Amino acid sequence: MQRQVKRYPKNCLLTVMDRYSAVVRNMEQVVMIPSLLRDMQLNVNGHQAKDEAPNLYNYFTMLKAIRVDVDHGLLPREEWWSKVAGGRAHEAEAEAAETEDEEEGFLGQLDLEAQFHLHFSSLHHILTHLTLKAEEVTRKYQEIMEQAM
Predict the structure, then answer these.
(1) Coil, strand, or helix at residue 73?
(2) In terms of CB atoms within 10 Å, which end of the chain has fewer, N or C?
(3) How many CB atoms lie within 10 A of CB 141?
(4) pTM
(5) Residues contacting residue 19 through CB under 8 Å, at least 6 positions apart
(6) Phi and psi torsions of 41, nearest 5°
(7) Residue 103 phi, psi (nearest 5)
(8) Res 26 pLDDT > 90
């Protein structure tokens, strides 16, 4: 039995999510030795990133973790909080509550359709940006491997 593959419009959120997952899966297959990425910084528009910027290994692990959420859905909130390390969980919870209160005040003024478009466009933008980061990590790893040979 053949499964039909539905084609979505270019800017459809499902297309963006599928592309992100595919690019990260490709990154995982290409990057055989992730530890080589530890001391490498991401180039931003041809300029070297600042010293406090995350290294490529951090991007690699973050992109993989987000792909799991994109592919399998979010963990229930309680499980997510338990995964966050001790004191950091309380900080994150306080920040999230504060941000949520600010968002509720702002979003309460908007109707549901406007809220949807705001979150939809934000998610679309973030997934597109993360896809570009995954492609950059893969490209940088391939450059490292070419130099090593």
Answers:
(1) coil
(2) N
(3) 21
(4) 0.69
(5) 131
(6) -100, 150
(7) -65, -40
(8) yes
